[in-house]
Amino acid sequence: MTNRMHIVSDKGYHPVTRWLHAGLVLGVMFQLIGALLMAHPDHADTGRNGLVMNHEAVAAEVAHSEHEANELGKFFMSAHRTGGTVVAAIVLVNLIWAVVLRGAPRKRQMSVLGSSRHWHEALSIAKNIPSMLLGRIPLPEPGNSLSLVFEMLGLLTMTTMAVSGTVIWMLWDGPGNTVSAMAETLMGVHASVAVILLLYLVGHVSMALMHAKAGDPVFNRILPKRKRSTAAQGDKL
């Protein structure tokens, strides 16, 4: 049996959904790449949370941070901060769109995470992924429970990244400055969630490519600019 979809629809997502999706993809990719190039702080508690280090230790830590924070690293640090603000705004709009404005219960929205039916169906589909990869059974139809749950979990992951990053910037003054113990803890959380987000992106793109190979015009449905020949078929939420 080949990985051919039973029902292939070229009906595009709502324009708001498509543009928000594009913004998230580009923004998150920029943030992940920038995180590898930016200047990273050395960790030391400066007393912001009530614990004061030895003054000589703090001075040495700051000097080392200033040395490591080269101009290119500072640039990407600033870009990461600005990019994080933009991505946080997109995530906020996406959350509002997902929770409030998407209409019918069957559409993609945050409520699927509280649905035992969606979770049961998602787990059933997940168990069959190896067989799908081997081409033994067809891929599930678009809008299945696994894709809905996976999308909303990804959105929550991005929200965690945005919130933790915002709090870190409130606690840390940037390159050349040491960080408090709380900021250091949040940086650890931020980095761990970034790994989860990277795995999510890999899985998300991999499944999209599998659907495209099986004949599902998934990219034409989700890209902001669709092919003229299919655009007239209408959009869905």
UniProtKB/TrEMBL annotation:
<feature type="transmembrane region" description="Helical">
    <location>
        <begin position="82"/>
        <end position="101"/>
    </location>
</feature>
<dbReference type="GO" id="GO:0005886">
    <property type="term" value="C:plasma membrane"/>
</dbReference>
<dbReference type="InterPro" id="IPR016174">
    <property type="entry name" value="Di-haem_cyt_TM"/>
</dbReference>
<keyword id="KW-0472">Membrane</keyword>
<dbReference type="Pfam" id="PF01292">
    <property type="entry name" value="Ni_hydr_CYTB"/>
</dbReference>
<feature type="transmembrane region" description="Helical">
    <location>
        <begin position="20"/>
        <end position="39"/>
    </location>
</feature>
<feature type="transmembrane region" description="Helical">
    <location>
        <begin position="192"/>
        <end position="212"/>
    </location>
</feature>
<keyword id="KW-1003">Cell membrane</keyword>
<feature type="domain" description="Cytochrome b561 bacterial/Ni-hydrogenase">
    <location>
        <begin position="13"/>
        <end position="224"/>
    </location>
</feature>
<protein>
    <submittedName>
        <fullName>Prokaryotic cytochrome b561</fullName>
    </submittedName>
</protein>
<keyword id="KW-0812">Transmembrane</keyword>
<dbReference type="GO" id="GO:0009055">
    <property type="term" value="F:electron transfer activity"/>
</dbReference>
<dbReference type="GO" id="GO:0022904">
    <property type="term" value="P:respiratory electron transport chain"/>
</dbReference>
<keyword id="KW-1133">Transmembrane helix</keyword>
<feature type="transmembrane region" description="Helical">
    <location>
        <begin position="146"/>
        <end position="172"/>
    </location>
</feature>
<dbReference type="InterPro" id="IPR011577">
    <property type="entry name" value="Cyt_b561_bac/Ni-Hgenase"/>
</dbReference>
